[in-house]
């Protein structure tokens, strides 16, 4: 049972949008002692959540949901009127990339606010958590206050990582509030401090600032992380050109405490529902504001990242002797990262798609994400077990570094494949160990290994 019983005062909250962010936020707020109603337009999602069956894989989430539902302080509904009983309303709906464009699509956010407006009461606080272009909070505040002048809006961006979402929500590195100036802003920040009382008491830094700074902090954080990954991937290309080893390079760089080792993982690059779309939306917004030149480097960050996928395909084709047709390729990993079943903009799946499109006999396996692959890409072959995927393979691609793949025994594996050739798309394996077991080991950025 995860319950801190920490909140001195139990607040009633609504969480609007119950996907990766909202489902975790709703369940975590109950663990912090509050009463929560989760609202979503997706009936199937709401039904599953109401039975403690999350529509997504996230460690600890099912347990937290089960505890919350059992306590009677958590429920889920598709009815926006349920927000009427809450005093704080978290906006957690998606802000995807616009179809055919780079900017963020705010239709879901605007629709969520439209649905909430009739149920707002004086004294209510609407709290934006979705990732939005700078300027959105000020616009939404005007909308809200034109209907309920005594309601307020804060922007409280979320920094959680999938695969660690519960831990990141309960014990974040920092908490950021964007609030209006004056007493209204102070009252909004006080209310948020009550909601996050446990983290605040534990000494989590709280930065209370204006809307624009809060919105920009989120965009900047993801832009920085993406830039760090593309930086090390650019170094990987230099390693390939010179015989260097990017993993040792990253270790050496990472010992500099000003740089740090995290997010220097070179390989196939970043994917997922956030970093790729967020850097594009950030640049698009900067261009709208006439500041595009300042963020032009993000175009290069994006290009370096997308080029990783093309490089991996080149490496795979070379390993097939340039004749991929009919070659059995086992792809280990479909999720965009380990610890998640999220396949949005998954680098692994893009590589699998491209190899399948040139006639390779590609079979994909993943411990969590296969259902989503089958649902969205029925033309791709999947294997439910690792053994089934690798049996008779002529090439293995490690594209998502799930622990069970990283811990594979190269000696045992050699017995079940047709050709002992592996491409380590995540630089997650020890090349010496695999080569000693008789494997042809290849990777991006390990020219000298
Ligand atoms: N996934 C993550 O790790 C993080 C996501 N974010 C941001 O949080 C936001 C949500 O992202 P995800 O949870 O990943 O997206 P998601 O697509 O998993 O979830 C969005 C949910 O909103 C629901 N929705 C859409 N329109 C609605 C409406 N009018 N009323 C109620 N519900 C509605 C959808 O049915 C869906 O369940 C995005 O802005 C994202 O950038 C921020 C930090 C972490
Ligand atoms: O805004 C968001 O939604 C979130 O986006 C990222 O979180 P997430 O997408 O869950 O995953 P990350 O751990 O950041 O990984 C993103 C991608 O980068 C790749 N990556 C990560 C680290 C690394 O060193 N190298 C690397 O290629 C991962 O494989 C993955 O494809 C940020 O880390 C979160 O702080 C943020 O809240």
From TrEMBL:
Substrate binds at residues 159-162, 218, 263-267, 271, 337. Keywords: NAD, Oxidoreductase. NAD(+) binds at residues 40, 45, 95, 131, 162, 277, 344. SUPFAM superfamilies: 6-phosphogluconate dehydrogenase C-terminal domain-like, NAD(P)-binding Rossmann-fold domains, UDP-glucose/GDP-mannose dehydrogenase C-terminal domain. InterPro entries: 6-PGluconate_DH-like_C_sf, NAD(P)-bd_dom_sf, UDP-Glc/GDP-Man, UDP-Glc/GDP-Man_DH_C, UDP-Glc/GDP-Man_DH_C_sf, UDP-Glc/GDP-Man_DH_dimer, UDP-Glc/GDP-Man_DH_N, UDPglc_DH_bac. SMART domains: UDPG_MGDP_dh_C (SM00984). Gene3D superfamilies: Cytochrome c1, transmembrane anchor, C-terminal, NAD(P)-binding Rossmann-like Domain. Pathway: Nucleotide-sugar biosynthesis; UDP-alpha-D-glucuronate biosynthesis; UDP-alpha-D-glucuronate from UDP-alpha-D-glucose: step 1/1. The active site is at residue 274. Its EC number is 1.1.1.22. NCBIfam families: NDP-sugDHase (TIGR03026). Catalyzes the conversion of UDP-glucose into UDP-glucuronate, one of the precursors of teichuronic acid. This is UDP-glucose 6-dehydrogenase. It comes from Microlunatus parietis.
